[in-house]
Amino acid sequence: MRHFDYIRETEPVAAALAASVAGARFIAGGTNLLDLMKLQVETPETLVDISRLPLKEIEPGADGGLRIGALVPNSDLAAHPAIRRDFPVLSRALLAGASGQLRNKATTGGNLLQRTRCGYFYETSAACNKREPGSGCDAMQGFNRMMAVLGASDRCIAANPSDMAVAMRALDAEVETLDAQGGTRRIPLHAFHRQPGDTPHIETTLEPGELITAVVLPPRSEERRGGKECRSRWSP
User: What is the Cα–Cα distance from 11 to 16, expressed in whole angstroms?
Assistant: First the structure.
């Protein structure tokens, strides 16, 4: 792992400002980023620790839905009574997506920003346009049974690894963000992740330093519930 600078921020705008410079990355749970750094797939020059930001609440939304703070751990989100009752598809996706240890550390915002599990992306000696733009894609002619079928391109066939994102897309979720100037916006999840096209290394519509602050679920409807109430080991 290479040397890097470490900054811990406790205020959202300051965190966005610190992460807006070239080579900076946010870190919260670190369940994906630290692995990538160990393998030198990612080599950030600065890590901006946002784990102390006040973004850990699950609360009613202004329109009657739910507002989920970006730093809510996946385990807390899966176990929340309102999620299990009104949005069971989300709870089930989270419980199916990782081990308990990972769910305890992984955050809502970080889950949306996971990078692909494609083996060629992780292998730095392989050609990968997502890791090194313009180098090619060894997955095209390699072991690709688990790669993307829809939304791929002739530059990249890697799949997005987030089970949570699939459930939230079905629920018409929106992503709230904050930039370094204090500006906010709300991005429909269907417009948040980019298809690979000619630039597979650009995976979302976020700008440099733009911080996810929350994910908003619209009010419950029978079409959005996604099945019966989730009964898990946290159920009474």
Answer: 9
